[in-house]
UniProtKB/TrEMBL annotation:
It comes from the Bacteria. Keywords: Sigma factor, Transcription, Transcription regulation. The keyword GTP-binding does not apply. Pfam families: Sigma70_r2, Sigma70_r4_2. This is RNA polymerase sigma-70 factor. Residues 7-69 form the RNA polymerase sigma-70 region domain. InterPro entries: ECF_Sigma-70_Domain, NTF2-like_dom_sf, RNA_pol_sigma-70_dom, RNA_pol_sigma-70_ECF, RNA_pol_sigma70_r2, RNA_pol_sigma70_r4_t2, RNA_pol_sigma_r2, RNA_pol_sigma_r3/r4-like. Residues 105-156 form the RNA polymerase sigma factor 70 region 4 type domain. The keyword S-adenosyl-L-methionine does not apply. Interacts transiently with the RNA polymerase catalytic core formed by RpoA, RpoB, RpoC and RpoZ (2 alpha, 1 beta, 1 beta' and 1 omega subunit) to form the RNA polymerase holoenzyme that can initiate transcription. Belongs to the sigma-70 factor family. ECF subfamily.
Length: 311
């Protein structure tokens, strides 16, 4: 039997595996908890606690993902993974790979894979598990797992996201972006945006939706110029924060409640993509959530008041 101490030591790894397979913080936490419950009733001590628990959480995650796929096909508007503030699993030798594998862009690319391909790819390419361990985890032969990895790697390579390799450069550009945003320096802001930048939101039909998104530096700047100054005037706060291993921010109201999160994809010294998660169902783990519709109404009222002749 695995002790509580052993399980707690491995919990960060188990969560990180489950999150990369599922793209959901809540579902990953549930998968880890279910793993512990199954472990608690097992009376046979495993040869390796890490291999055993990783196999259990992988199988649970595959089953959850299969049912989640149906819900995601019926999802209102674009679907993004739940934002992850901090990856609990750290490995200094793989820090860059771990950060990129948990990025919004990489997780969206993983959505193209079948649940089995996704699980095998995550175990092998992200966490460097051996094929005997992977085969045991997913109930396939080692040869079949090797084929699954080859197929998954081919799909991933076809659309593999590219990011600014230098984390310091990436963070400095994001800092300039959010400074310009708060200060209303939209000329400076535009210089930081790629000409074909895209700004897309996941609201799930439960928060204001930006149609299919905004595309191009001109349109994105117009939207930001219309919304950000009045948002700041009503006490809104833009709090820069690493999101899914990349620069991003948490937007809060005057009471500190969460409105949405932003994640930035940065390449060649410019921001290529801004992804916003505003679906309240995906933000509870970030903090108490505010009604985004109410914030939008207050922001628009502040904007109209600022534009009126009497102001």
């Amino acid at each position: 039997m695995i002790s509580t101490e052993e399980f707690q030591e491995l919990r960060p790894l188990l969560f990180s595996i489950a999150y990369r397979i599922l793209g959901s913080v809540a579902e990953a936490e549930d998968a880890v908890q279910e793993t512990w419950l199954r472990c608690a009733i097992s009376t046979t001590p495993p040869a390796s606690a890490k291999a055993y628990l990783s196999a259990v959480v992988t199988r649970i995650s595959i089953n959850v993902l299969r049912s989640a796929r149906v819900r995601r096909e019926e999802y209102v508007g674009p679907w993004f993974p739940e934002p992850l503030l901090t990856d609990p699993y750290q490995d200094p030798e793989q820090s860059a790979e771990l950060a990129d594998s948990v990025s919004m862009a990489a997780l969206l690319l993983l959505e193209r894979l079948s649940p089995l391909e996704r699980a095998v790819f995550v175990l092998r390419e992200v966490f460097a598990f051996g094929f005997p361990e992977i085969a045991s985890a997913v109930g396939r032969s080692e040869g079949a797992c090797r084929q699954l990895v080859v197929r998954a790697r081919r799909h991933m390579d076809e659309g593999r996201p590219r990011f600014e390799a230098d984390r310091r450069v990436r963070d400095e550009l994001a800092e300039r972006f959010f400074d310009a945003l708060r200060e209303g320096d939209f000329d400076g802001l535009r210089e930081l945006l790629a000409a074909d930048v895209s700004m897309v939101a996941d609201s799930g039909g439960k928060a204001p939706q930006w149609a299919k998104g905004f595309f191009g530096a001109h349109h994105v700047c117009r939207v930001l110029a219309a919304l950000l100054p009045p948002f700041v005037r009503i006490g809104g706060v833009v709090e820069p924060h690493q999101m899914n291993g990349h620069p991003g921010a948490i937007f809060r109201d005057q009471d500190g409640k969460v409105i949405n999160t932003w994640t930035l994809d940065i390449l060649d010294g410019q921001i290529q993509t801004i992804r916003t998660v505003s679906n309240p169902d995906k933000l509870g783990h970030v903090g108490p959530v505010r009604d985004a519709w109410a914030v939008l109404r207050e922001t628009r009222q502040a904007g109209r008041a600022a534009d009126s002749p009497e102001s």
